[in-house]
Amino acid sequence: MAPGAVDQSDEAHPAAAKPTKLPPGVVLGPDGKPCRSCSSGKAFKNWSAMMKGGVATSAVVAAAPTAESTPSDCPPDVEELGRSTWTLLHSITASYPEKPSPELQTDTRSFLNTFAKLYPCWWCAKDFQKYIQEERHAPRLSSRDEFGKWMCEAHNAVNVKLGKKEFDCSKWEERWRTGWKDGRCD
Ligand SMILES: Cc1cc2nc3c(=O)[nH]c(=O)nc-3n(C[C@H](O)[C@H](O)[C@H](O)COP(=O)(O)OP(=O)(O)OC[C@H]3O[C@@H](n4cnc5c(N)ncnc54)[C@H](O)[C@@H]3O)c2cc1C
């Protein structure tokens, strides 16, 4: 589901109120209010400017000023949240043991299931839950390399959904663990 395409019949979010003239890219949260971590920063700023103007009309939306960049100490939008989260997730795979114990594999599976429920962008979370529940996408946790590649493939599934270029998963370890072979990270 794309940002802006707010599904008001969504069973997971029955409290979401019907939006009136939201700028494209603004997604509502469970409380029926625009959700910053589910929306692009620019769309959220446009919504904010529109609300400060006090009139929620499509004319105001169209005339909303182009969003300036948001200061770095503000709550994250969907992109910043995503970048930070992928950094954490890939870094977890990078520090995962080469031979994990069965107990650690169970804990990791449970972490991924819980993460997929708690991810603050609710519509991203729903898609991610669906992804990991499909048998062919079940987390592969038997070694660091398997887990690193699985995470790379999961990230690529989101890249594809967003129309972005796929990452070459044979290079996941250079990107997230060892640094690139050309030495530029040393
Ligand atoms: C679980 C999850 C689900 C998400 N779902 C959505 C969604 O439904 N809609 C939405 O708008 N946003 C979603 N996001 C956010 C989105 O994936 C991006 O993080 C965000 O758009 C910012 O993208 P970016 O181009 O800066 O780089 P990111 O995609 O955040 O990637 C960060 C860096 O990781 C590296 N990288 C890229 N792809 C891979 C890969 N496959 N494997 C290893 N490394 C890689 C690159 O060096 C890149 O610069 C989701 C994020 C997460 C964590």
Tell me about this structure.
This protein is mainly α. It folds into two domains: 75 residues, no CATH class; 101 residues, ERV/ALR sulfhydryl oxidase domain (Four Helix Bundle (Hemerythrin (Met), subunit A)). The chain is built from seven helices and no strands. Helix 3 runs antiparallel to helix 6 and helix 3 packs across helix 7. It starts with 40 loop residues before the first helix and ends in an 8-residue tail after the last helix. The structure holds flavin-adenine dinucleotide. The site of flavin-adenine dinucleotide (FAD) has 22 residues, from helix 3, helix 5, helix 6 and helix 7. It comes from Sporormia fimetaria CBS 119925. Keywords: Disulfide bond, FAD, Flavoprotein, Mitochondrion, Oxidoreductase.
Q: What is the highest CATH level, the class of the largest domain?
A: Mainly Alpha
Counting H and I runs of at least 4 residues, what is the number of helices? 7
What is the tally of beta strands? 0
User: What do the pLDDT scores average to?
Assistant: 85
**Estimated share of beta-strand residues:** under 5%
Q: How many structural domains can be distinguished in the coordinates? A: 2
Let me know the CATH homologous superfamily of the largest domain: ERV/ALR sulfhydryl oxidase domain
Runs with pLDDT <50, length 5+? Answer: 1-19, 55-67
The CATH topology annotation of the largest domain reads as Four Helix Bundle (Hemerythrin (Met), subunit A)
Shape: globular
Give the ordered list of helices and strands.
HHHHHHH
**Percent of residues in helical segments?**
40-55%
Mind telling me the C-alpha Rg?
Answer: 19 Å
Overall structural class, as computed from helix and strand content, comes to: mainly alpha
Largest sheet: none
Distance between the termini: 40 Å
